[in-house]
Write a structure and sequence with these properties.
Length: about 550
């Protein structure tokens, strides 16, 4: 069979690109090292949050957004400082992506059948000045049906093209080499892995049963990042974030291993911004793990007291939901790789959401009845399950017992009850007036000026140690590996560039392996909802560019 294009990786970026090229009448071979039931990759597991600008959902909630404000926020967040070299193409991709998010992104997805939850979330608020990191307004649009519903329309079209013969899909095909002739990439070679019947996301065997070689005019690499390969994460860990954590949880399956980055580099592709990565600070061990070392991220509201491993309260902007990278740096510089939340039952029942499609069955199942249940007293069922069964949760009726339980859990006896009591009592005294010098309390009150937060996301301000707000809850938080912000440098068509800045003939990249565009569209920091969107945009752009090149 003669193919026009080979796509390496059947995640969201690979599926989108495959659809675009098949729509243009091209013959596509889609390869992936995982079984067929893994189609969609990490996107299937996601919460389904997308960054949109000036959307109908925002306008209905009274949010005034604009392309100019979004670009201001992106620049303040990214902090591009390598613009003559490593950031050159990333910044160009960033501007194009903001245009897309403020333009046809929503209408394009709407035509594909994607719908959105009406309440827009407000993630990564920053906590700095207007020109600094964070979203100035809520932009986190949750797909109705979460990650699976975002993957579904693209998977459906790929399967239709498989039936017609325009797309051939071979799972359990692990690419080991890119084939080159006369400086151009002309195909791939690799290993056929033993068939697997594991459930989606579980670790799979790597036993080799055969070998393959396929040729095409173009190869598109869409293989994802390095988040499942902790050795590679530590190797690229930047000094500015302190020492790499000795212990991390995995927010992605083991197959997110970064193999294709090294393989593409060996073929001449340039990797830039290796030291930029996005890991979460609010990870908890999954009591019901799917993959090895499986962690879940808490998407916190603003009210929990955040303490380091020794019980010291973190300063601004290291508050829940404000600046992930700043807080990661602060945690690592303590010399410990974990931290703590202390909160009340009133806070957890309104402010704790868990990232991931499987942790949000109401949204994933598109159940209005279940969604309305979030307004009822008590923690959501998935959160309650962690409270009941998760090893990182401690519940007590008074602070002294809570701190004793925290020390038992860590095994390090680092926490002093009197010091923690002093800090929380001082915070609680600030609740006696409507004004305060505690910026976390100011932020809580400010959050509730946004209707979406007031309704379903932020608890009314209250005293932590008042027994009527109890019981008290402590949560041990781990570092959770997630996204690669650097990657293969690409031009605005998705063509992979070499060390001299020239496009390698026949080689394209999309998705996380390309730093979500240009080798680093996010710079140092990411605005939430831009990872899935980056896969959509780079896959679409590269797919259309390849189709145009082959016409």
């Amino acid at each position: 069979m003669k193919y026009d294009v080979i796509v390496v990786g059947a995640g969201l970026a690979g599926l989108v690109a495959t659809v675009e090229m098949a729509d243009a009448g091209k013959k596509v071979l889609l390869l992936d090292q995982e079984p067929e039931n893994y189609l969609g990759g990490q996107a299937w597991w996601s919460f389904g949050g997308l960054f949109l600008v000036d959307s109908p959902e925002q306008r209905r909630l009274g949010i005034k957004d604009s392309r100019e404000l979004a670009w201001q926020d992106w620049l303040g967040t990214a902090g591009f400082d390598r613009e003559d070299d490593q950031d050159y193409w990333g910044k160009k991709w960033a501007e194009a992506y903001v245009d897309f998010a403020a333009g046809e992104k929503r209408s394009w997805l709407h035509k594909m059948g994607v719908r959105f939850f009406p309440v827009v979330g407000w993630a990564e608020r920053g906590g700095h000045l207007a020109t600094g990191h964070g979203n100035s307004v809520p932009r986190f649009h949750i797909v109705w049906g979460t990650g699976p519903a975002l993957v579904a329309p693209f998977e459906r079209k790929v399967r239709e093209y498989m039936k017609s013969g325009s797309v051939h899909y071979f799972p359990r095909h692990q690419v080991d080499h890119l084939l080159k002739e006369n400086g151009a990439v002309v195909g791939v070679a690799g290993s056929v892995l033993i068939p697997s019947t594991t459930e989606r996301g579980e670790d799979t065997e790597r036993e080799i049963i055969d070998y393959f070689e396929y040729r095409a005019q173009v190869v598109l690499v869409a293989s994802g990042g390095i988040g499942g390969n902790h050795d590679l994460v530590r190797k690229n860990w930047p000094e500015r974030l302190g020492s790499p954590p000795k212990r991390m949880l995995s927010g992605v399956p083991a197959h997110v291993d970064g193999r294709m980055l090294a393989i593409t580099e060996e073929a001449g592709g340039r990797i830039v911004n290796r030291d930029r990565m996005w890991h979460y600070t609010e990870g908890i061990k999954n009591w019901n793990p799917i993959w090895s070392n499986h962690g879940i991220r808490i998407l916190p509201g603003p009210s929990s007291i955040w303490l380091d491993a020794k019980g010291k309260r973190f300063p601004v902007p290291n508050l829940p939901g404000f600046d992930t990278l700043s807080t990661l740096e602060a945690i690592q510089k303590t010399g410990y790789d974990y931290s703590w939340f202390i909160l009340t039952e009133k806070i957890i029942e309104k402010e704790f959401a868990l990232s991931g499609s499987e942790q949000n069955p109401d949204l994933t199942d598109k159940s209005i009845r279940k969604v309305l249940g979030r307004a009822l007293p008590g923690a959501p069922e998935p959160v309650q399950a962690f409270m009941d069964k998760g090893e990182d949760f401690i519940i007590a009726n008074n602070l002294q017992d809570l701190v004793a339980g925290m020390n038992r859990l860590s095994g390090e006896n680092l926490l002093n009850y009197k010091e923690i009591e002093y800090q929380i009592k001082a915070r609680d005294r600030e609740m006696d007036n409507k004004f305060t010098k505690d910026l976390q309390i100011t932020a809580i009150r400010g959050h509730r000026n946004y209707l979406g937060d007031k309704l379903i996301r932020v608890a009314p301000p209250h005293k932590i140690l008042d027994p009527k707000n109890g019981p008290l809850i402590a949560v041990r938080l781990h570092i959770l590996s997630r996204k690669t912000l650097g990657g293969l440098q690409t031009d605005l068509s998705g063509r992979v560039l070499d060390s001299s800045g020239q496009a390698i003939p026949g080689l394209y990249a999309a998705g996380e392996v390309s730093g979500f565009g240009g080798g680093g569209v996010h710079g140092y920091r990411a605005l939430e909802g831009t990872f899935l969107g980056g896969c959509l945009f780079t896959g679409r752009t590269a797919g259309r560019a390849i189709a145009a090149e082959l016409n």
